[in-house]
Write a structure and sequence with these properties.
The complex is a heterodimer of chains A (858) and B (112). Chain A is α+β, with helices and mostly antiparallel strands and 858 residues long. Chain A has 28 helices and 26 strands. In chain A, strands 1, 2, 3, 4, 5, 6, 7, 8, 9, 10, 11, 12, 13 and 14 form a 14-stranded mixed beta sheet that branches. The radius of gyration of chain A is 37 Å and the shape is globular. Chain B is of the alpha+beta class and 112 residues long. In chain B, strand 1 and strand 2 form a beta hairpin. In chain B, helix 1 packs across helix 4. The longest helix of chain B has 19 residues, at 82-100. Classes of the chains: A alpha+beta (858), B alpha+beta (112). Chain A binds chain B through residues 24-33, 35-36, 49-50, 53-54, 56, 58-59, and chain B through 25-27, 42-45, 47-48, 51, 63, 69-71, 73-76.
C-alpha cells in the first residue's frame, strides 16, 4: 500500500487553501486515513472527500499577501478618504454634484432612447410579422403605408405567407351610452384574427368570439371607463351615430405604451360598409405573418406579381415592400403612417447629447480627483517610505474613487427619479421609471460607472504609486501632466461650445419656422368637423347663420384642413405626360376657402358664387403646379381630368400663390383645389381678433341647430398646426437644457483647474511679486492660458457644429441659413465664461501677500 | 469568544480526549468515538470541534513526533486543561443532579 499515493490535485488543493499553521496536522490526518484504507480506489475517494470537507472558513487562508492587517488598512483608507473629502469639501461637493447631474441626465435620456428602441417590441404575438407598403417605383424613399385591402386575401396564394391581418381607420363615429355622447376618432376595423397576430391583454371576453358578430365592438380600458365607469362593459350596448346598435364583445389592453397601434376600439372588418375594398383604393394597413424561412425578397416579388395581375400597368407606379413590424417606428416615414412615427435621427441626437454631457462630467471628475491626488504626493511618498506596497496604494486610491462614484451614482439616480415627471412633460412621452430596472439598463449603467471610477482613480493609483519616494517627497510630479489636464479642459470647452452653437442653430431654425410666412394666416381660425351629411346640403344656410355673429368674418367648407391632411388622388393635367407627372395633392374647398385662410391669388380669379359652374368644373392650382405642369404662361383655361370625381374635366380658373399646406419639413408640391361639396368634411371659421367665449358659445348654439344629435366639438387651427413641430420643439428644449448643463459642467471643470493651478504656482507668483510683478500682470498670466483654451476649444467646436447643424437642417425642406453670428457668439460666450470662471482664483492668488506664499511649504 | 456552554459533540470529544490521554489526536479521537459509541464522524468535523475546544480553553495542544504512516508528518496531540476537566465535571454533575430529580414513578415502566 505504501507505493500508492493520494490524488495529487486534491493534495495540492489542500496545500493551496489551508492555513499554513494547520496544514501539517490536517494533511497528516488525511494521509493517515488514506494509507490505512486497504481498498485503494476507496482510499482515493475518501481522501478527496476529506480534503473537500476540510475546505471550511476556519481552515482557509485569509490573505495571500503577507500583510495580516488588510481589513484594518481598508478601514484606514476609508477613514482617510473621508477626511480628505471633508478637507476638500467644496471640491468634493462640486465633483460629486457634477457627476450626479450628468448621470441623472444620462439616465433620463437613456430612458427615452430605450423607449424608442423598444417600440412595438411586444406587439406581435407570433414571429415574422411584416407590414406590406407601397413604395414608389421612381423614388424609393416615398410611398404609402396603406395599401389595397384586396392584397391581404390574395396573398394567401403565396406559399410562405401564413396569415394576414388588415386594419383600417373607422371614420370617427359617435358613441352613445345613455346620456354620454362623444366622437371616437381612434377606432379601427380589424380582421377577425387580429388577436392571433397581435399581442393584447384580454381584460374581458373571449378572443375566439370577439369578432364573430358584425354588430360588436372591442373596447380598450379608457373607453370602458369613459362610458361605463367601473362597471363591466361586456355585453353592454353602444349606439353608433344615433342609429346602429353594437354590443361590447370584449375589452383588450395594450401590453406596452410604446406601440404605434393607438386605437381605442375595434370593429370587426365585416362591419366596414365603405366601398374601399377595391384594387385601386389604398386604405388598409396590411400585416403578413411569414414562415420562419421565408425569403423576403421573393415574397415581395410574389406580391408584385399579384399587383400586376390585378392592377392596370399604367396605374401601377409602386412596388410592394415588406417592413418588419418593429422597424416601422424608427425606419418608416411614408405617407399615411398610422401614428406619428419616431425618427432615428432624433434618437441619435439624444444619444450623442447624453454621451457629450457624460464626457464633460467625467473629465471634470477625473481632473478634480487627480488634481487633488497630486496634492497628496507627500502622503504617497510617506506611505512608500513606511513600507506601503504599490498594490496597497493602488487599492487605496481606487477604493476612494469607487466610493465617490458610488455616491454620485446614487445621487444621480435619485435626481433622475425626481426630475422624471418634468422630463416626461418636456418631451411629451409617457416614460416610466420601471424601465430603469431593466437588466441591460442596469448592466450598462454599472459598467459605465466602473469605467468612470477606474479612469478617475486610475491616474493616481497607477501612475503616482509607481513613482520614486524621493521624487514624491520633493513634490515634483513633472510638468507634462498639466498639458494633459489642460487638454482635458480643452475637450470640455470644445464640447460645451459645440452645444452652445448647436443650440443657436436649433433655436434659429425653430424661430425661422415660427416666423416663416406660411402663405396664409393661421391664427383666429377654429375648425369644426361635419358629422351629419345633411349639414353639407344646407351649406349656404350654415354659412349665413354663422356669419350673423359679428365676430365671425368668414366661413368655409372643405374636405380637410391644412397641415398634412391633403389627399392624394390621380389627376391628369392637360398636356402632361403620364410618366412625367409630378406628385400632386388635391384639396376639396369652396369659394370662401381662399379668403378664410387669406391666400393670395396671383393669376385669374377665385371660385365665386357668381359663376355657378365653378362648383362642378373649375379648379385652382398653386404656383408650383402651374410651374411643374409645364404650362408656361398660358395657365388659365387649361384642363385637368379628375378621374376619382366622376371623371370630371375641370378648367383652371386661377393660380394661388404657394402656401405651406404641409409642415415645413416637406417641400411644397403641386396642389389642385376644386369644389366637390359631397366630399366636404370640415368647416373653417375665421374670427376677428375680438372673439371671446361668448362667440364660441354662439357658434356652438348655431351649429347645434344643424347637428342637434351630435355633441359640439371644435379645435383651434394654429394649435393643430403647431403639433407638426412638436418633435422639433422637444429637440430644441433638450438641446437648450443640455447645452446649459454642459456649460455649467465645463465651468466647474475650469474652476477647479484654476484653483489647482493657482495653489501649485503660488510660490512662483510670490517670487514674481517680490521681484516687482504687479497684480494685474499675474492675473494676466493666468487668464491668458485659459482664454487660449477657450478660443481653441470653441474654434474646434465651430467646425463640428457647422457640419452637424448642416446635417440636421437637411431634414427641413425650408430652413434658415447658417448664421456666422451663431459661431461668433458661441466663441465670445466661451471666452467670457472662461475668463469669468478663472478670474476669481487668479485674483485671489495674485493678491496674496508674497510672504505667505513663499514661506509656505506647499 | 463563544460562551462556555459545552455542546453534546464537544462533550463527547472532550471525554474522548481524556480517555486517550496522552495520545489524543484527530484520527485517534475519531476512531475512539466510532469504537465506543458507534458514531461515524468525518475527520474534518473532529478537527472543527477540537479547534473550538481549544479556543474555549478546554484542551491544549502540542506537536508530537513525526510518524511513518503520516508520511513523516507530526501529530497534534491534545490534552485536557484544568478548565476542560472542570467543564466535564460540571456537565457530569449537572446531568446527575437533574437525573436524580426525576420522580421514581416516571421511571417505572411496566412491560405490557
Amino acid at each position: 500500500m505504501r507505493e500508492q499515493s493520494p490524488p495529487r490535485w486534491a493534495d495540492r488543493f489542500l496545500q493551496w487553501y489551508c492555513k499554513p499553521e494547520l496544514l501539517e496536522t490536517i494533511q497528516g490526518d488525511v494521509y493517515e486515513l488514506f494509507y490505512r484504507e486497504k481498498d485503494s480506489s476507496k482510499a482515493r475517494r475518501k481522501f478527496i472527500w476529506n480534503v473537500l470537507r476540510f475546505f471550511r472558513w476556519k481552515n482557509i487562508k485569509r490573505t495571500r499577501s503577507s500583510s495580516p492587517n488588510r481589513f484594518d488598512m481598508l478601514q484606514h483608507y476609508f477613514k482617510l478618504g473621508f477626511r480628505n473629502l471633508l478637507n476638500n469639501r467644496n471640491h468634493a461637493i462640486i465633483n460629486v454634484t457634477g457627476l450626479a447631474v450628468a448621470i441623472a441626465a444620462v439616465i433620463l435620456i437613456a430612458l427615452y432612447v430605450q423607449y424608442e428602441l423598444t417600440y412595438d417590441s411586444k406587439l406581435a404575438k407570433v414571429p415574422n410579422v411584416y407590414r406590406v407598403v407601397n413604395i414608389n417605383k421612381d423614388d424609393n424613399t416615398r410611398g404609402l403605408a396603406k395599401i389595397t385591402g384586396m392584397l391581404g386575401p390574395a396573398s394567401s396564394e403565396i406559399r410562405s405567407v401564413k396569415s394576414f391581418v388588415r386594419i383600417t381607420w373607422a371614420a370617427s363615429p359617435m358613441f352613445g351610452v345613455n346620456d354620454i355622447k362623444a366622437f371616437e376618432p381612434n377606432g379601427l376595423y380589424a380582421d377577425a384574427n387580429f388577436l392571433e397576430m397581435f399581442n393584447y391583454r384580454i381584460v374581458e371576453g373571449s378572443p375566439a368570439t370577439m369578432f364573430s358578430s358584425p354588430n360588436s365592438v372591442v373596447l380598450t380600458p379608457n373607453l370602458v371607463k369613459k362610458y361605463f365607469g367601473d362597471e363591466s362593459a361586456l355585453g353592454k350596448t353602444i349606439t353608433i351615430n344615433n342609429h346602429a346598435q353594437v354590443t361590447v364583445s370584449g375589452v383588450i389592453e395594450a401590453v406596452q405604451p410604446n406601440t404605434h397601434f393607438t386605437f381605442t376600439f375595434l370593429f370587426p372588418m365585416e362591419a366596414d360598409k365603405s366601398d374601399w375594398l377595391v384594387w385601386d383604393r389604398q386604405q388598409y394597413y396590411t400585416f403578413l405573418q411569414l414562415d420562419d424561412n421565408a425569403d423576403i425578397a421573393q415574397v415581395e416579388k410574389d406580391l408584385d406579381v399579384i399587383y400586376a395581375k390585378n392592377i392596370p400597368a399604367d396605374k401601377l407606379n409602386y412596388h410592394a415592400r415588406l417592413q418588419p413590424l418593429t422597424s416601422i417606428h424608427l425606419h418608416s416615414a411614408l405617407t399615411r403612417e398610422m401614428g406619428g412615427n419616431g425618427n432615428l435621427k432624433t434618437v441619435y441626437i439624444y444619444i450623442s447629447i447624453a454621451l457629450l454631457v457624460l464626457i464633460i462630467a467625467c473629465i471634470n471628475y477625473i481632473n478634480i480627483f487627480t488634481a487633488k491626488a497630486g496634492e497628496r504626493l507627500k502622503e504617497i511618498g510617506m506611505r512608500k517610505v513606511s513600507g506601503a506596497k504599490r498594490s496597497e496604494l493602488i487599492r487605496q486610491f481606487l477604493s476612494e474613487s469607487f466610493v465617490l462614484t458610488f455616491i454620485a451614482a446614487a445621487a444621480g439616480v435619485a435626481l433622475s427619479l425626481a426630475t422624471l415627471p418634468y422630463f416626461r412633460y418636456a418631451i411629451g412621452i409617457p416614460l416610466s421609471a420601471n424601465n430603469i430596472l431593466d437588466a441591460t439598463f442596469i448592466g450598462l449603467f454599472a459598467a459605465g460607472l466602473f469605467v468612470v471610477a477606474l479612469l478617475a482613480g486610475g491616474y493616481p493609483a497607477f501612475y503616482l504609486s509607481a513613482m520614486k519616494p524621493v521624487a514624491l517627497q520633493r513634490g515634483t510630479s513633472g510638468a507634462t501632466r498639466n498639458r494633459w489636464r489642460e487638454g482635458l479642459v480643452l475637450v470640455q470647452f470644445t464640447i460645451s461650445a459645440f452645444m452652445i452653437t448647436a443650440l443657436f442653430g436649433v433655436s434659429g431654425q425653430i424661430t425661422y419656422m415660427e416666423n416663416k410666412s406660411l402663405g396664409f394666416a393661421k391664427d383666429n381660425i377654429i375648425i369644426l368637423q361635419i358629422r351629419d351629411r345633411a349639414t353639407v346640403k344646407s351649406r349656404q344656410a350654415v354659412i349665413e347663420k354663422l356669419k350673423s355673429n359679428p365676430h365671425v368674418t368668414n366661413v368655409s367648407f372643405s374636405g380637410t384642413t391644412l397641415g398634412g391632411n391633403d389627399w392624394g388622388m390621380p389627376v391628369q393635367p392637360e398636356g402632361v405626360d403620364r410618366d412625367k407627372m409630378p406628385e400632386t395633392r388635391i384639396m376639396v374647398v369652396d369659394e370662401n376657402f381662399v379668403d378664410t385662410y387669406k391666400f393670395k391669388i396671383i393669376e385669374g380669379r377665385n371660385f365665386s358664387s357668381a359663376f355657378p359652374a365653378d362648383s362642378a368644373n373649375s379648379v385652382l392650382v398653386n404656383a408650383t403646379a402651374a410651374r411643374e405642369f409645364g404650362w408656361g404662361n398660358n395657365i388659365l383655361g387649361r384642363r385637368i381630368v379628375i378621374p376619382a370625381a366622376n371623371n370630371k374635366t375641370a378648367v383652371v380658373v386661377g393660380v394661388v400663390d404657394d402656401f405651406h399646406f404641409r409642415s415645413l419639413h416637406s417641400e411644397i408640391i403641386p396642389l389642385v383645389m376644386f369644389m366637390q361639396p359631397s366630399w366636404d368634411g370640415s368647416v373653417s371659421i375665421r374670427l376677428d381678433g375680438q372673439a371671446n367665449k361668448e362667440t364660441i358659445d354662439d357658434i356652438a348654439d348655431i351649429w347645434q341647430t344643424f347637428e342637434p344629435q351630435f355633441p359640439f366639438a371644435y379645435g383651434y387651427f394654429d394649435q393643430a398646426l403647431d403639433r407638426l413641430y412638436q418633435a422639433d420643439r422637444n429637440t430644441s428644449r433638450l438641446v437648450t437644457w443640455s447645452g446649459v448643463l454642459a456649460v455649467i459642467l465645463a465651468c466647474i471643470g475650469l474652476f477647479s483647474l484654476t484653483a489647482y493651478q493657482a495653489t501649485r504656482r503660488s510660490r512662483e507668483f510670490g517670487i514674481r511679486k517680490v521681484l516687482g510683478a504687479s497684480v494685474e500682470s499675474i492675473v494676466a498670466i493666468q487668464l491668458k492660458a485659459y482664454t487660449i483654451v477657450a478660443i481653441v476649444g470653441s474654434l474646434t467646436a465651430c467646425v463640428f457644429a457647422w457640419y452637424i447643424i448642416e446635417k440636421w437642417l437637411t431634414g427641413f425642406a425650408y430652413r434658415t441659413s447658417i448664421q456666422p453670428s451663431w459661431f461668433l457668439l458661441s466663441i465670445v460666450l466661451s471666452v467670457f465664461v472662461a475668463m469669468a470662471t478663472s478670474i476669481y482664483q487668479s485674483l485671489r492668488s495674485a493678491m496674496v501677500n508674497p510672504v505667505q506664499s513663499i514661506k509656505s511649504n506647499q | 469568544m463563544k460562551g462556555n456552554y459545552l455542546g453534546e459533540l464537544e462533550e463527547l470529544v472532550l471525554l474522548t480526549v481524556g480517555i486517550l490521554h496522552p495520545n489524543a489526536y484527530g484520527v485517534a479521537v475519531m476512531d475512539e468515538i466510532q469504537r465506543q459509541v458507534n458514531r461515524e464522524l468525518n475527520i474534518s468535523a473532529v478537527h472543527a470541534v477540537l479547534t473550538r475546544l481549544e479556543e474555549k480553553g478546554y484542551v491544549k495542544s502540542g506537536m508530537g513526533e513525526p510518524s511513518q504512516e503520516r508520511g513523516g508528518r507530526r501529530k497534534r496531540i491534545f490534552t485536557l486543561t484544568a478548565a476542560g476537566k472542570r467543564a466535564l465535571e460540571e456537565a457530569n454533575e449537572m446531568r446527575t443532579q437533574l437525573f436524580s430529580q426525576i420522580p421514581k414513578v416516571a421511571l417505572q415502566f411496566r412491560i405490557a
